[in-house]
Amino acid sequence: xxxxxxxxxxxxxxxxxxxxxxxxxxxxxxxxxxxxxxxxxxxxxxxxxxxxxxxxxxxxxxxxxxxxxxxxxxxxxxx
Amino acid sequence: xxxxxxxxxxxxxxxxxxxxxxxxxxxxxxxxxxxxxxxxxxxxxxxxxxxxxxxxxxxxxxxxxxxxxxxxxxxxxxxxxxxxxxxxxxxxxxxxxxxxxxxxxxxxxxxxxxxxxxxxxxxxxxxxxxxxxxxxxxxxxxxxxxxxxxxxxxxxxxxxxxxxxxxxxxxxxxxxxxxxxxxxxxxxxxxxxxxxxxxxxxxxxxxxxxxxxxxxxxxxxxxxxxxxxxxxxxxxxxxxxxxxxxxxxxxxxxxxxxxxxxxxxxxxxxxxxxxxxxxxxxxxxxxxxxxxxxxxxxxxxxxxxxxxxxxxxxxxxxxxxxxxxxxxxxxxxxxxxxxxxxxxxxxxxxxxxxxxxxxxxxxxxxxxxxxxxxxxxxxxxxxxxxxxxxxxxxxxxxxxxxxxxxxxxxxxxxxxxxxxxxxxxxxxxxxxxxxxxxxxxxxxxxxxxxxxxxxxxxxxxxxxxxxxxxxxxxxxxxxxxxxxxxxxxxxxxxxxxxxxxxxxxxxxxxxxxxxxxxxxxxxxxxxxxxxxxxxxxxxxxxxxxxxxxxxxxxxxxxxxxxxxxxxxxxxx
Lengths: 79, 572
Hints:
Shape of chain B: globular
Low-confidence stretches of chain B: none
Number of helices of chain A: 1
Number of strands of chain B: 17
Shape of chain A: globular
Distance between the termini of chain B: 31 Å
Distance between the termini of chain A: 37 Å
Oligomer: heterodimer
Strand order of the largest sheet of chain A: 2-1-5-3-4
Largest sheet of chain A: 5 strands, mixed
Largest sheet of chain B: 6 strands, mixed
Strand order of the largest sheet of chain B: 2-1-6-3-4-5
Strand content of chain B: 5-15%
């Protein structure tokens, strides 16, 4: 299935020509979960990220659907 | 270790050794404990009985990175309770290097009499007439002061809002470029400075009389460890330098807790236009600085220089809370307008949060449309001119709500909330309600716990305990002079250990981890005690009514924590 991954913070810098307005078009197997997508993008726990799907924070075990827009954000504190 | 005491009634300036009861205290610990000991709780905050105290942290002035915070304390004209607001910039470190533990301003000058306090490289202080600087906005003021006294000075000052003694008036501090763009914004402390009759405090950055370190080698080693942890942490070492605190715009919108359109929605329609990523891209394209040294000895560089379409300086630094208050709450999705509003707030000497929320309340009440950037700029200019409406807006959201007879006023203890809605982040609501400071995110912010998945932000369970722990930790951190962002690495036990070693190496003490938490409890106890004596009751530890009655989209939750639970927060 095809989904779109939008990367925030410094994550976009890892992908050449990353366009923040469009995000990354990603093709992953049907039934893939958020954690599978992170592995696919080589993003690990050490990167301190959390994920939101269609503007809602989601768990790593959540299954993704065709056409989902997945926001991958960096954890932050303070401000 | 010395106190610089300035009596504005007699115009007497004196230097004395720090009395034994205050030895070892710094930052918020010193300001709050001293206010509780020495200020009459029921006094007029704008009268001669109040004291205005400037205290660098216990580690400020040392070689440790990111320790340039200065705590400013007084009885607040906004909340009516005790207040500590801290700021970065250069003055904290400058005072530390002069060996000045605190500047204590007492009494009050006759109305209309304005002075500058000048502190030279030898730590000698004099009061000089500030008649020529009366009414001046802060950018012009600091430029003139640095011309007169030299660029190697740091400045604390007020703008017109402080001279009018408005409840949202800030005390601005100069950054490393000599711009008054850092603020102790909260609680109207600029009004207290105006009431004392002080326009500016100019502090030499060339002091060479910092307090001696008891064990310099141990200090150096632990300081190196602490700096390494900051550099290697993804948040402090990478993200903050890339997108600044504005990186929180996307994160908090993802949580549905970004108070928008005067706290009627939890996701801002145009959040991607005002996100940290959008800001960094705009600055980069225009030739500004996405990362920038703002405060002395900083290695995080969360600051930025926002420039206009022609590459000309607009403001520094555009921060998350300001983007929220001047953007999210007002419905303005144009970063250029938000940057202009930020500049105006610094220049007039206003808390961007209390003022942005006041503008949002005015818009919600129908005074102007949400999203009307020009109207927001005009409201800021009204404050600067001191018009009747300007003074109402400059006195904050509650004054605006009363004026327009509007019920939705997002405050606790009369102070505006910050950029985390208590219905989308219930624990931050506990902090807003129970903090002796009034609604204040820096008193105990749980956003890190929510984003890390450690706590469910919209459930009632666990919020009181988490807020309590965070408030104790912050009260302790605020004593050290470390910036809050550097303080986030203290979640790492190695950083905690290093901090403890630093404190012990400086003072020759043998404090353990429990003693650090005990310091936070001691500070909070002093603050709660002052507020009780000032007349605060449990009924003051509540949020504005609408937070309990109006569900916030997208989660459609109200604030869920019962009064009984709130009252258990401080069980000491």
